[in-house]
Amino acid sequence: MPEDSRFGPARHVTLPGPFVVDSGAVLGTVDVGYSTHGDPRHPTILICHALTGDQHVASPHPRTGKPGWWSRMVGPGLPIDTSRHFVVCANVLGSCMGTSGPASVDPASGCRYAMRFPVVTIRDMVRVQALLLDHLGVGRLHAVVGGSMGGMQVLAWAAAFPDRVERAVVIASAARHAAQPIAFHEVGRQAIMADPNWRGGDYYDGPPPAAGLAVARMAAHITYVSEAGLTEKFGRRLQNRPDGATGAKSFGFDADFQVESYLRHQGISFVDRFDANAYLYITRAMDYFDLGEEHGGRIADAFRGSRTRFCLVSFDTDWLYPTAESRAVVKALHAAGAAASFVELSSPFGHDAFLLDVPELDRVVAGFLAS
After folding, report:
1. Is 148 an active-site residue?
2. Which of the residues 158, 186, 223, 257 has an alpha carbon 20 to 30 A from that of 341?
3. pLDDT at residue number 76
């Protein structure tokens, strides 16, 4: 098959507009950063990434050099098998890795959008993905797969484009945000906006609000791990100091405890690859997401008559999206007459378990995709 520039890792396309977002604002064109893996003649699987993820699902990240964020799941012979499936993953609308977002240049003004970028929703993200698939010549999808915010996109895909989705895999997610995730997101947003370098979002010609974004990441990361996991990994252990001592406390504001150093590292490393304004926009999109809102609060009505087969997975230590959230979606799917299976897996890793080494998850995903 001759090489086609549309396919491969680290791809980019500008989709013609106009594209009208749910808020009513209009984007003249939409840039999309995406990657593909496998043979486009094979059945297609769309992977939807989480809040701080991107399109580099199975190839090295161009900024960090680290392996793709799901390279343990996606590849030849892996649960999402690229020797049997054509895999597509796109950076979401509002993000900062090649897809239009607040850091993009507004063609009308020649300046960065910053906070003038329109508010976007999970459904807007999904509709951009659908336009990308049209560009790639993909009609019906063998499956849509995603965890966390990616799972929200999967649900939105199945609701908005039921005739295009054969299978839907929703991992560690929810049909709407409860108050607690919204509260943590608001803490993060306020940390960013309190940073003096934020300057109302117009910081692109100067230093970014790195301190605020790092704090936002630290607060969010606490929700991604379990209490048992943090206790086992760090406990109350103190840092080794340059003088070799480990027991005495400095009683200052240095990172005395190992868990403090860990969180600070998470924050500092994050600011090197993510845009603060994009964080504001995407967390707001997650908070606005409510699959049942346009159906009088009835999630089941979003899937009435759907032929899509669903698989939902939760983790017993996930307190960000606890198992009850997944059970509520399964109950709604069954009420709608949709085919849905569900499993709660045991893992010490909390919400982040879907990104880590959980062999039971591998078996569930591989079995469902092959069934």
Report:
1. yes
2. 223
3. 97
- Return the DSSP state at 170: E
Instruction: Name the catalytic one among 148, 173, 314, 347.
Output: 148
pTM of the model: 0.94
- Pairwise CA distance, residues 63 & 300, whole Å: 41
Q: Which of 177, 226, 318, 347 is catalytic?
A: 318
Q: Would you list the domain boundaries of the chain? A: 11-176+289-370, 182-281
CATH number for the segment(s) 182-281: 1.10.1740.110
Catalytic residue check, 173: no
Q: Quick one: fold of 11-176+289-370?
A: Rossmann fold (3.40.50)
Q: Residues annotated in the binding site for substrate, as ranges?
A: 217, 352
Where does residue 159 rank: exposed (0-12), middle (13-18), buried (19+ CB within 10 A)?
buried
Q: How far apart are CA 249 and CA 243, in angstroms?
A: 13
Contact 32, 128 (CB under 8 A): yes
Residue 212 in tokens: 């605020």
Average pLDDT over every residue of 168-189: 97
